[in-house]
Amino acid sequence: MLETLKKEVLAANLKLQEHQLVTFTWGNVSGIDREKERIVIKPSGVEYSDLTADDLVVLNLEGEVVEGSLKPSSDTPTHVYLYKAFPNIGGIVHTHSQWATSWAQSGRDIPPLGTTHADYFDSAIPCTREMYDEEIIHDYELNTGKVIAETFQQHNYEQVPGVLVNNHGPFCWGTDALNAIHNAVVLETVAEMAYHSIMLNKDVNPINTVLHEKHFYRKHGANAYYGQS
Ligand SMILES: [Zn+2]
């Protein structure tokens, strides 16, 4: 079932290591087939070097396993919740990549300081609020999805394809699993550059709004003109 989607999700999971976004088995990627209403996700705790397409777990939109013999990623309820909350996304990546996680642990949004950020994110990259004890004790992973969706009441998920979960790490998404990986690599790069910029000049200002919009909209939306047509 879903051989093409499995291949893509496997390739995306292997790219986590290639781009040095993960340590050990931390991190996970999923993809969704919206028509068939099936999600393919990495199994929990399996080494990337051992991972095959057959190890991937197929779920329905309730998060129930419909194919696969391994347990799905422990973050599965977060992925499932986000697919429902953000109807136009096709893939999700979660990592504890070091620069993005440093921002998440500091509880700070990543401010837009330059055009690299502006090319992909039309605002600051938000950090969620801290979770309440009750949200942590019961249905923690589901509540992580809810707190992300709550944060995006103030943002457009299609124009800000990633978030920092407070005290935890980044979740990124995209049109498919590989696009979500691309956004995760960009987020990590932007997080590192923002850190260095603030170290070099603690009074640094966010990018001028006109320049920010110029860069974002030349790559996104109806009037985009970046790249080959
Ligand atoms: Zn995590």
Automatic annotation (TrEMBL):
GO terms for molecular function: aldehyde-lyase activity; L-ribulose-phosphate 4-epimerase activity; zinc ion binding. Its EC number is 5.1.3.4. Its cofactor is Zn(2+). One of its GO terms (biological process) is L-arabinose catabolic process. Keywords: Arabinose catabolism, Carbohydrate metabolism, Isomerase, Metal-binding, Zinc. It holds the Pfam family Aldolase_II. It catalyses: L-ribulose 5-phosphate = D-xylulose 5-phosphate. GO terms for cellular component: cytosol. InterPro entries: Aldolase_class_II_sugar_metab, Aldolase_II/adducin_N, Aldolase_II/adducin_N_sf, AraD. Residues 7-195 form the Class II aldolase/adducin N-terminal domain. Pathway: Carbohydrate degradation; L-arabinose degradation via L-ribulose; D-xylulose 5-phosphate from L-arabinose (bacterial route): step 3/3. The keyword Chaperone does not apply. SMART domains: Aldolase_II (SM01007). Belongs to the aldolase class II family. AraD/FucA subfamily. PANTHER family: FUCULOSE PHOSPHATE ALDOLASE, L-RIBULOSE-5-PHOSPHATE 4-EPIMERASE SGBE. Involved in the degradation of L-arabinose. Catalyzes the interconversion of L-ribulose 5-phosphate (LRu5P) and D-xylulose 5-phosphate (D-Xu5P) via a retroaldol/aldol mechanism (carbon-carbon bond cleavage analogous to a class II aldolase reaction). This is L-ribulose-5-phosphate 4-epimerase. It comes from Bacillus inaquosorum KCTC 13429.
